[in-house]
Amino acid sequence: MTTSHPAGNTGIADVPPPWPVPSTASPAALRSLAGVEWDVVVIGSGNAALVAALTACQTVERVLVLERAPQHMRGGNTRHTRNIRCAHDTGDVFTPGTYSVDELFSDLQGVGRGPVNPALALFAVGESQTIPGWMADHGVRWQQPLAGTLNLNRTNRFFLGGGTALVNHYARTAELAGIRIAYEAAASDFRLSGDRRVTRVVLESADGPVDIPTRAVVVASGGFEANNGWLKRYWGDAADNYLVRGTPYNDGSMLARLLDLGAGVAGDPRGFHAIAVDARAPRFDGGIATRLDSVPYSIVVNRDGLRFSDEGRDIWPKRYASWGGLIAEQDGQIAYSVYDAQAAPLFMPSMYPAYTGASVAEVARLAGLDPDRVVRTVAEFNAHIDPTGRFDPGRLDGCGTRGLDPPKSNWALPIQGPPFHILPLRTGITFTFMGLAVNELAQVLDTDGRPFTNVYAAGEVMSGNILSSGYLAGFGLTIGSVFGRIAGREAAQHSAH
Ligand SMILES: Cc1cc2nc3c(=O)[nH]c(=O)nc-3n(C[C@H](O)[C@H](O)[C@H](O)COP(=O)(O)OP(=O)(O)OC[C@H]3O[C@@H](n4cnc5c(N)ncnc54)[C@H](O)[C@@H]3O)c2cc1C
Predict the structure, then answer these.
(1) Residue extents of the structural domains in the chain
(2) Number of other residues whose CB lies within 10 A of the CB of residue 364
(3) Which CATH number is 274-428's, of 3.30.420.10, 1.20.1730.10, 3.90.700.10, 3.90.1300.10?
(4) CA nearest 245: which of 221, 268, 276?
(5) How far is CA 114 from the centre of its chain?
(6) Would the CB of 477 count as within 6 Å of ligand 1?
(7) What is the CATH number of domain 27-271+433-496?
(8) What is the tens place of the pLDDT at every residue in 100-143?
(9) Global confidence as pTM
(10) How far is the CA of 252 from the centre of ligand 1 (A)?
(11) How many CA atoms lie less than 13 Å away from 453 in the CB half-sphere?
(12) Nearest protein Cα to ligand 1, atom 39
């Protein structure tokens, strides 16, 4: 297992050796891309990639987007998104109230160990103010804030139609602007000249390699969360039990290739955003629908029927991203949320039905748990609830347990009214943080901190420059949008000169 790299510094990562990633488009289609020298080749078709491509085409003409997925799976994890976090001095109907740069930065400092590179993080926060206007100029439309468990209406802007609509808007705007998007075209390698300049992006066709000439490259190919073998380097066999909430295509192939070519690494290899998802969710791409929000209104036990963490420590938006890691630490990487009839209407319904029984013992048996042990845990919990507490789901109500270890600090309702329910939980990884070290111009840096001549990075593939161990909902798109614009602009300017 590898240990963390020094925060904010470039370093050498223990990564798997690069592997060839075959393209599934026909060799003829891939060869047709090789006939021109492109001004900018962008790798990926998620938010960061499309923002970079749209920005680049304001300066140069020949912009190519390479996406390894088929067209219906384009947009990577961005397909699943719903909102973006941006600072704003004046509110409007979509984000009422104000959310200053200072407040957003302070929120970012408050999650996990705080930003890896505070200067870069502050820069991203400041730039975030200009992102909604840019998005609207490129076809995105907004919707009124959603009410729900995460309460993000003041800080996060929701786009109409979610991430699929976002990708569709950007892709259509891109194609109208003359940007070429090639699907089933997986970047596999780079050819470099002596001055660490990429001259060609290599695609592996069924007939052998196809070299795509280019003057500059933007890498926006996501994290490595879909690569179980890579996760196992840092998490061991536990990774076999993780579910991946997003695209199966983000295997980190381009990240591994660039690190092998001497790029510096930024961020903690074990850093990821992971939440509690339904244990019955698919291995990949379950998306938002499999998230479970029952934790604050339930008790959570491991497979031995024992509680292991304070389910009510903080409001859910600040705490939900801790549960992926907490479950990862349990035997078998599984946990169970236990609640009763009065708690059931307090959170969004689950996609898969909860196990339900007339008694705690019955529902525990249905969930495959030791009924006696779960009955004892529930009884112990009920007996320690402060009887003077006033339950209020809308705030930190202090309605907690007394003398129980671990405590439940808020929303401690007794579990006593049938029917009783259990939802099985697993670690659902949203995305990994460790990525390519970059500077403020989105240039990829080598292990000595010197920029590659014409290689830029944006999005999840460089989020480790900012995110350490925690995450702020909606900031993934902020990072991708801010650095996508810079990467597109810088790549195009390099190419034009
Ligand atoms: C369920 C879910 C919900 C989320 N909700 C939000 C939200 O509401 N707000 C928010 O800010 N963030 C959210 N996130 C996180 C968010 O998805 C990301 O931070 C952001 O969209 C990532 O954008 P990206 O462009 O960096 O990567 P992606 O959107 O993942 O795009 C990477 C692309 O690169 C392609 N690719 C990979 N390797 C290659 C290769 N070798 N060659 C060619 N192409 C390649 C992939 O196929 C993919 O299309 C969510 C994530 C998930 C999974």
Answers:
(1) 27-271+433-496, 274-428
(2) 26
(3) 3.90.700.10
(4) 276
(5) 17
(6) yes
(7) 3.50.50.60
(8) 999 999 999 988 788 889 999 999 999 999 999 999 999 999 99
(9) 0.94
(10) 12
(11) 13
(12) 221
